[in-house]
Every structure is written in structure tokens, then in C-alpha cells.
Amino acid sequence: MPRTSQPRSIEELEALVAQQQMALEAKEAELEQRQAMIEERDALIAFYREWKRLIDSQRFGAKSERFASDAQARLFDEAEAIVAEQTTADEEAVSIPAHTRRKRRPRALPDFLPVHEILHDLSEEEKVCPHHASHRLVEIGR
Questions:
Q1: Entry pTM
Q2: Cβ pair 80, 73 in contact under 8 A
């Protein structure tokens, strides 16, 4: 500020300081607004980058991974990380004793259903393997 334009009284100086303070507050508000816009754009850019990565993996990825069941979940990696931390803590605390499983057997038919056994057998000429004449075809089960 040149010497000729300096305030001549205390009131003018107070008015000048108040004016400069209002201008500073307006600039700070504008700066905060621009910072909020920048953060919003950064979040939007990050979302679109993740979206593009997902689309690229679906388009150019291996066929077995193209339609993975957790494809949508990969959009929100932060949540997965939090859940993974919680589950590892839970897994450490829980212990399950070992057990044996019974082998499943087919259920028998009820007695009231009629059972007709039909046996389809090949003739002796058809029981010869077409690729190796020395091999004979045998019954493998009923």
C-alpha cells in the first residue's frame, strides 16, 4: 500500500482492517468450497476407475472369472478389508471339535411299490471290444 493512500484516522484504519478481514473470510469460504468440490471429484474419479477395472476384468479377463459371484463385491474393497479383519479375530476365538461323517447310502424303495427287474444283455459277438479284439466287455454293475 503506497504511503499516500494510508488511512488518516483510527476509524478509517478499523474500516480497512474489517474490509480486509471480510475479504479474507470470503476467500477462505471459497477455498473450502473448492476443496470440497475437489474431494467430491476425487471420490467420483476413484469410483469410475474401479468401475472401469471391473468392466475390463469382465471383458478381457479369463472366462472362469468373468461372471464371478463376488464381482459386485469387489467394487467396495474397503468393506471387505474390515470384514476380513473381524472374521480373522472371530476365527481365532472359535474352536470346533473334529467329527466323522456317515457315508450316505441310497434309500430303499418302499415295499408297496412293484419292482420289475429287466436285464438287457449283449450277445457274445457284441461283447468284443471294437478297438482291441482281445478285450472282452464285461458287466460292470446293476
A1: 0.34
A2: yes
Q: DSSP code of 85? A: H
**Domain definitions of the chain by residue range:** 8-93
Give residue-wise pLDDT tens across range 78-87. Answer: 666 677 676 6
Find out whether 20 and 28 touch, Cβ atoms under 8 Å: no
Which grid cell sits at 24? 479474507
Q: Which grid coordinates belong to 51?
A: 468401475
Backbone angles phi, psi at 101, to 5 degrees: -105, 145
CA angle 87, 69, 78 (to 5 degrees): 45
Residues 6+ apart with CB under 8 A from 6: none
Cell of 54: 471391473
Contacts of 80 by beta carbon, 8 Å cutoff, 6+ apart:
73, 74
Please check whether residue 7 is in contact with residue 16, taking contact to mean a CB–CB distance below 8 angstroms: yes
